[in-house]
Each structure stands twice: as C-alpha cells, then as structure tokens.
Specification:
binds ribose-5-phosphate, TIM Barrel, 10 strands
Length: about 270
C-alpha cells in the first residue's frame, strides 16, 4: 500500500488504537432535507470536534464546513437516485479530480448486493478502487440493504466480503447477530452504521456490541444528530469506541451532557 493511501487511512482509523468515530451526515444525497440535517452547518459544527472524520457529500462540504477545518473528509461519491425511485440505480457522482481538489481522506460508495442494479454498483466500486489506487485515496464501501433483504450475517457477510474482494479498503455495514462471523470472513476493517433513530441506550449498546465483536468503529448519523442531545450522544459513542467504557458509563456521559443543555436552555 502506498504512503499516501496509508496516511489517509490513518487519518480515519486512528493508529493509536485502530479505532474510528465517523460522523455520517450524507443522508440528504437521496433523502433530501433529513430530520436533524435541515441546516447542515448548524448540525455539524457542534459535533465536529468529537468525530475523527466526517462523511458527507461535496455539496454539504462546500456550503457547510469551514475549509480551514482539519477534520478528515470521507466524501460520498455515489448517488443519482432519490427515495422516490429504485435506490440501487446509483452511479459515481464525483470525479477523482474533484476528490483530490477537495482533499478527501476517503471516497464512499454504496453497493447494493442482491438488488436490481447489483452489477452496476459492484462495477462502480471496482472502478472507484482503480481511481483511488492511482492517487492513494482509500475507498469505503457502504453495504446498502434493499427493502426485501434480511440484515443477517449471511447477507451482510456476503456483501462485505464482495466489497473486500473488489478492493475496498474499509466497509461499512450493519451490526447483526453472529457479527464475529462477518468479521472473521472480511479481510478489511469494518465499521457499522447506526441505522434508524432508536432510544439512546439502544444505540449505545449497538456501538458497544459492534466494537466488542470486532468492528473498528462506527459511522453513525441519525442516532447522533436526531438525539435530544447530539453532543451528549457523540461524546458517549466516542467514549465507547476509544475509551472502551461500558454502555452504562457511556449513558452517564450522554445524560450529563443532556443536563447541561437543559440547564443552558433554562437560562
Ligand atoms: C446512508 O444514507 C448513509 O450512508 C449513512 O451515512 C449511513 O446509513 C449511516 O448513517 P446512520 O447512522 O444514520 O444509519
């Protein structure tokens, strides 16, 4: 692996503990103004210092993140669909030249294994890896799950392994039962998405289970920015990923930050 590739990967997965906290705010690329992300800058700014990296589209990067920020950027480069149409019909939406101009640390693309446009998305992944290899930019494959697919280890293990075989450098997937099996059969680092908003305790349990069973970290969005205390949640998730605290301890961090917010609001 060339120096640039290794250096960029080390910006995302911290070499000190081989762990990663990625803040996902790319949802608008097919969902439009997602709840909690209506004004991306307002959402992102208070959270940025607690994330190791941020995953977003180039539109939100340009408009809502200070270019003087040194936060590593994982740029979503696949899309072209909306929730109103077949979601798997994605293509690559950003050129490698723009990724270089934007100084990204990794490029993220969704693969839709088992969906209508499975082949197209897998070929896009392979092409993106070729481009990334030329310039030392890693590729994060996102295992998107179609409506009719089960989020079980058989399916997610298949999708993650295919992503790795096609050359992805990191894969993002969902936590599932028997997650260790997925980790064992996937030769690249795995991070987990948070998924739909759940009660805070459940989201913290998910993060804890994932890292305990072999994920290098999380790429979490809605369970952070849709929480009643987004700062509390990201601090709590960070303490699980990097400080190995228990769910109970992490929950106290969230509750305490929530209390601070309530006191501030009360004046
Ligand atoms: C899907 O829209 C994106 O790839 C998200 O970045 C991903 O699903 C992680 O966000 P969340 O934790 O909200 O699922």
């Amino acid at each position: 692996m060339n120096w640039g590739m290794q250096n960029r990967l080390a910006r995302i997965i911290k070499p000190e503990d081989n762990r990663a906290v990625m803040l996902a705010v790319d949802h608008g690329y097919f969902l439009g103004p997602t709840s909690g992300l209506e004004q991306p800058r307002k959402t992102i700014e208070p959270l940025l210092s607690y994330a190791d990296s941020i995953m977003l589209t180039r539109g939100v990067l340009r408009t809502s993140v200070d270019p003087k920020s040194d936060k590593p950027v994982v740029l979503r480069v696949s899309g072209g669909t909306s929730i109103l149409k077949e979601l798997s019909n994605e293509d690559i939406t950003v050129s490698i030249e723009d990724c270089i101009r934007l100084n990204v640390s990794a490029m993220a693309l969704s693969i839709f294994v088992g969906s209508e446009f499975e082949k197209e998305t897998l070929v896009s992944l392979a092409k993106l890896v070729d481009e990334g290899e030329k310039y030392g930019i890693p590729v994060l494959a996102v295992t998107a799950v179609g409506k009719d697919m089960a989020r079980d280890v058989r399916y997610l293990g298949l999708a993650c392994r295919i992503a790795a075989e096609l050359g992805a450098h990191i894969v993002k997937t969902y936590y599932c039962d028997d997650f260790e099996q997925l980790i064992e059969s996937c030769p690249i680092p795995v991070i987990i998405a948070g998924g739909k908003k759940t009660p805070e305790m459940e989201a913290l349990e998910l993060a804890h289970n994932a890292v305990t069973h072999g994920a290098v970290g999380v790429d979490m969005g809605r369970n952070i920015f849709q929480s009643d205390s987004p700062v509390g949640m990201i601090k709590a998730v960070r303490s699980i990923v990097h400080e190995h605290v228990s769910v109970k301890e992490a929950c106290k961090i969230y509750e305490s930050e929530k209390g601070v917010k309530a006191r501030r609001a009360a004046g």
